[in-house]
Amino acid sequence: MPDSQEYRFQVNLSGMIDILSNHLYSSPRVFLRELLQNATDAITARIDLDPSHRGEVFVELAGQGADATLLMQDNGIGLTEEDVHEFLAMIGHSSKRNGTELLGETSFIGRFGIGLLSCFMVSDEIVMLTQSASGGPSIEWRGKPDGTYTIRKLETSLTPGTKVYLRCKPETDFYFEAETVELDLLHYGALLPYPIRLSAQGSEHRINPEVPDWIVRPDLARGSRDEVLRFGENMLGERFRDFIPLRTSTGRTGGIAYILPHAVNLNAKRSHKVYLKRMLISEQADNILPEWAFFVKCLIWTDELQPTASREHFYENEQLERVRGELGEAIRDELIQMSEQDQTRLRRIVELHALSMKNLAAEDDEFYRMIHRWLPFESTYGHKSLGELIDEKQTLYYTPTLDHYRQLRHVASAQSMLVVNGGYIYEAELLESLTRILPGIDVRRLLPEDVSLAFTDLNAEERSLTLQAARAADLALQRFRCRILLKRFKPEELPALFTLPEEAATLRSIERASEESPQAFASILGSLGGSLQGDASSYSLLYLNLSNPVVERMFTGQSTSRLSTLIEMLYANALMMGHYPMSRSELALLNKGILSLIDWSIEPEKGE
Amino acid sequence: MDHFETEFEDLMTEAYGLPNGAAKMALLERAAELADLAGNIEAGYEAREEIVEVGSFGGFPLKAIVAYSWQLGQYDRNPEAFDDHTLHWNYKWVIDDVPSFPDVPTQQIESLLEDLRRRYQEYGVSDRTYWYYRFRISMYMGDLEKAGEYLSEFRKLKRDSMSDCSACELDEQVRYLLLTGQDEAAIKKAQPIVKGRQRCAHVPHATLPFLLLPLHRLGRTEEAEELQPKSYKLIRDNLTFVHEFGEHIGYLSIVDPQKALPLLERHLPQVEGHEDPLSRMMFYWNAAALLQKLIRTEEAFVLNLPPSSRFYALADNHDELRQKLEEEAFTTAQALDTRNANTYYTQYGKELLKERG
Asked: Over the stretch B150-162, which tens digit does the pLDDT of each residue have?
């Protein structure tokens, strides 16, 4: 091959370190995780060869401030001279594949180099002493951020394992402080199955607790309730009262879902702590559980998911989708089990996290069937669980919107109608599908115009007595497209009730907007409104209560020329009581009416 | 006044915490009412800005149009007081929904397009967005020839601050290819969307449902099967995707009708009260196609509709339900065609029923 020659890209190491620290990792402090990961990988590799081996990690801090140094030592498999030569080359090798494997599940050696590189974020020189468990000489490696390194064979033979020495570089002494290091070691390594010891300022102690059995086998957690809760408080910083063990069918993902002791917003950030092969990968993993599971905070370990390049999240792939599904199942199954065996516990959870429960129930009939009795609702009988409302054995009316509920609740409670507010998220949907899970239950949607169901019609005598006044009243409100209906209803103190069927409400809002709109839009609103008019349901309704003494006098007393003004005032008053914004002409009505009332009260009407 | 402000802020905060949908809309409408009652235009404007967004992306186009008209009126009276970028941007959402209402005559749609053009020119952006919306609106009005012309006008100009995101633009071009019968080209053009390289709040949600049948027709049945549940998951909780629900039902009607029944049960009661006549029509046709298919193949099936549904009484009378849905859809189609001065939708409905029923 005379003219052909192969070249290698020269990777600029300092540029690469810059990329790592500024773009890949969220903070330089991850160097400690990378070192710990290297130590862990080395110990795992050694245990693979010799299952009786007992791993240990030792960290030592020496010096103060700008002179601080850090040593991390493991008794893992160690590196041979070839390994050492290879690992930097492997970085280039693995990064050729689009970066996803850059820090992913590549070979032990490849990862090792990358992990070591991250130390340049906090140190201008890395010294590594290593002795392979498979023999050969002990090696000293010294690397600099410009990419140069030296290798030296040592005369003496060290015990198998690796030591890495770092000297803090300017401005990074924060990362070498004992408190920071201790916190981070615990943070990343809390679940590692061998001791991490830290020596600083002359004292030495173990950082990570003995890993409890129930973390590895979550089905055992139920037996150690207090311990599990305490552990959760230590690890997640909240005092929990309940938890659900999690496990996937493969057994390669598991953990504990702690029930949050307080309600959370539907859009709140989820923050589960997730460990990959026992090392913390994220404390903000938001995609490892289904959306609806926002009432739990989890400690999860896994060895079946693929981390992103920064090792701080997981790739959104089918594997993750399966794991997410199965973890969701575990939570769901536990809730269903509670509904059969421990209802007090379920009630406590549901009351606290009603929203996510309703969400889940709206999506899943089976779940809804199990849990429906404990879901809380607002009703004219007070805040009650659906079970309690069902036990009332009444027709269960519900309003599809919050507005309707507000309009109807006073009238409805005065008549002891059981009306449930379906206006909050998922509620109308749940109430509507209640017949699907409880066939035969009497649930009906209630619209404002339906309250008349519970109103008493006038008898024939009353009808003829009031007919003339009723016609005059109807005429007075014609221009507002409002119809009056005389009834008797409770409470008696309520003279009039304004209701707005949906179409009339739309028309009303179109007209009010039209008063304010530019020409091009006003004409479109005109067309849209035009199609609604003419329909009977485009009229609003004003129910007048003949049981109210004032209304009774207006309609059964002597006929009076003041009637139309009085009716207009009742109309305006009913609008205000119902919190309806008024159009310009309605406001004008109010002004005129008040002036008339003042006028009349000063001077009695002629002929009286 | 203080009382108003607290209540208004509470409602708005509660609304911001909810996904786009009926519950959020109810809170926002309440907030707008409170603002009107207090005569607070600034607050009324803020609430309506949200109403326009929730309406456009949560399935309440009529409410969006009404709220936007009001906003624009306030803006014209006092342009300094409001954020003109947001207002101009939202015009696009609103104008896009107007042609769905057959009661709005073509002349008024034209005036609206010219109004948009004038306002955009004054705002200092090119005609690109104007041509783009002409392109979209011509598609909705069944004039594919004109749509093609506007598409090439639009392509001549450079993107600017009023341009839709590139994912949305791509989605509309895919739609054009589909409507003009170019399945293969459409699928190819949609690849960046399918692969997730082009995405936004609306894409791929609005794209994928329309790829199911074309994939099936091209014999790429496995891809379609794999895509269907994924696509459905993206849209199932958002009532802005009524037409898309219909596409799923239509597709399933061809490949696995039993699987379409839960979709019909879930969505029919939601769709019957939906504001958008065009989307409702599309849904009804697909629903009718499904029933027709099941009846024709003599498959046993039950339909569980809630008592509040307008169609409750017909739940067990499948053929009558099918007829009723078809009839209502064709009535809307007729009204749209009359307005559009063509026979596009009536034709569209007939072909849809033939293919999927």
From this structure: 999 998 888 888 9
